[in-house]
Specification:
Helix content: 25-40%
Structural class: alpha/beta
Number of strands: 17
Strand content: 15-25%
CATH class of the largest domain: Alpha Beta
Low-confidence stretches: none
CATH architecture of the largest domain: 2-Layer Sandwich
Radius of gyration: 24 Å
CATH topology of the largest domain: Dihydrodipicolinate Reductase, domain 2
Shape: elongated
């Protein structure tokens, strides 16, 4: 029998406990291991979580799990990067295997934790840290192990995808949709972590680390959020045949790794463009398999709990077979790939200028773009109000980020342009 202790009895903790208790027999039949939930530690053990746990399981003392010689696997579901880190490292020093859903901790201190686990001969499972119930970590570590990964694209935050989906369908303002998302529980009271791309950046750092064999962290990720997105840009994008999503993108280009989170226009007929609401989706491109797509719920008690339990089962099997701790091929590669500077990234671009409606304005803007090696693919200028500012939308061919930044700075100084230019990157090669 393998004994498990859970640190944290919140949303994911209660979902994990529910699965372990309800499906104990099923897990035994499928894995050949009897997995026993022995302890759950939380500061609050009186609040009703909607599940019934056997008497004696709940405790307010984390040390009852961490120091119990009979507990084989400690599951950290507290969150944060301070107390959780301390608990994990203490558990490792006590010879415990660890499962965590803590993306922020892994993206910040992952290498320290993994090295500690390797030294102690124990395992770290973190399937639940990215994309909830989608088994994307196992895909990268095991399913596509024969491949050199070329690219990973993902909708990896359900809150932002819900907001953009509603803005697109209802032509609604960001602030109005955010309030609705908060009422429904899809967004936190302080939504910054989600809407400014921090959550997606943590997850992308983990995916990139596994894909390219070098640990990346939050500071390595170029990050932009969605709080500035307007229904006008979504509408113009739709007219051009594109859908707006917040994407995490990492790919190998010219021997360097791109690592970026930002609003992205995708052709409306791409499969990932059709992923709406709180759902997540991740493309992975390998040199042997080509492109693959993984889709499902990216958060929630049971979907994320499902990912946690999958790690528990894997580690339990290794313990029973005597092979636990031998599977530690994390962040290792014969030739580490350097990080590409954001200024060197190339992409197509969508621009919206608020231009004074008078002869010669478009030619001035196109002249500046051309001077900076940016060629125009298409233009939209629907409204005519001579002498007044009107939207001028430009879609470009591929251009380099630093050239785009220089061009935008120069265009913003034109007296015939009111306000600052809006620009959104465009990915126009589907990886399916």
């Amino acid at each position: 029998m393998i004994n498990v202790g859970i640190l944290g009895f919140g949303t994911v903790g209660s979902g994990t406990a529910q699965i372990l208790l309800r499906n104990r027999q099923l897990l035994n039949e499928r894995s050949g291991v009897d997995i026993n939930l022995k302890k759950i530690a939380d500061l609050d053990i009186t609040r009703d979580r909607g599940i019934k746990v056997p008497k004696g399981i709940l405790t307010t003392r984390a040390d009852e799990l961490i120091s119990d010689p009979d507990i084989h696997i400690v599951v950290e579901l507290i969150g944060g990067t301070t107390v959780a880190k301390d608990f994990i490292l203490r558990a490792i020093r006590n010879g415990k295997h660890v499962v965590t859903a803590n993306k922020a901790l892994l993206a910040t201190h992952g290498i320290e934790i993994i090295r500690a686990a390797e030294k102690a001969g124990v395992e770290i499972g973190f399937e639940a840290s990215v994309a909830g119930g989608i088994p994307i970590i196992k895909v990268l570590r095991e399913g596509l192990v024969a491949n050199r990964i070329k690219a990973v694209y993902g909708i990896i935050n359900g809150t932002t995808n819900y907001i953009l989906t509603k803005m697109t369908a209802e032509k609604a303002e960001y602030s109005d949709v955010l309030k609705e998302a908060q009422k429904l529980g899809y967004a936190e009271a302080d939504p910054t972590y989600d809407v400014e791309g921090v959550d997606s950046a943590h997850k992308l750092a983990i995916l990139a680390s596994l894909a390219f064999g070098v640990q990346y962290s939050l500071k390595d990720v170029h990050r932009e959020g969605i709080s500035w997105i307007s229904p006008m840009d979504i509408e113009f994008a739709h007219e051009l045949g594109y859908t707006l999503k917040l994407l995490g993108i990492t790919k190998e280009t010219d021997g360097k790794v791109e690592l970026r989170v930002h609003p992205t226009l995708l052709p409306a007929d791409f499969l990932i463009s059709k992923v709406d609401g709180v759902f997540n989706a991740v493309y992975v491109e390998g040199d042997a398999v080509g492109s693959t797509l993984y889709y499902g719920r990216g958060a929630g008690d049971l979907p994320t709990g499902s990912a946690v339990v999958s790690d528990i089962v894997d580690i339990s099997r290794h313990i029973m077979s005597g092979s636990a701790g031998r599977f530690s091929a994390f962040f290792k590669t014969a030739k580490p790939l350097p990080l590409m500077k954001m200024e060197d990234v190339t992409s197509m671009y969508y621009f919206r200028f608020s231009a004074i409606d008078k002869p010669g304005v478009l030619s001035k803007i196109s002249g500046i773009l051309g001077k900076h090696n940016i060629s125009i693919a298409s233009v939209i200028q629907k409204d005519r109000h001579e002498g007044k500012a009107v939207p001028l939308v430009v879609l470009t061919h591929r251009a380099r980020e630093k050239d785009v930044m220089r061009a935008v700075k120069e265009i913003n100084r034109l007296q015939t342009v009111a306000g600052r230019a809006v620009y959104i990157r465009v990915e126009n090669k589907e990886r399916t």
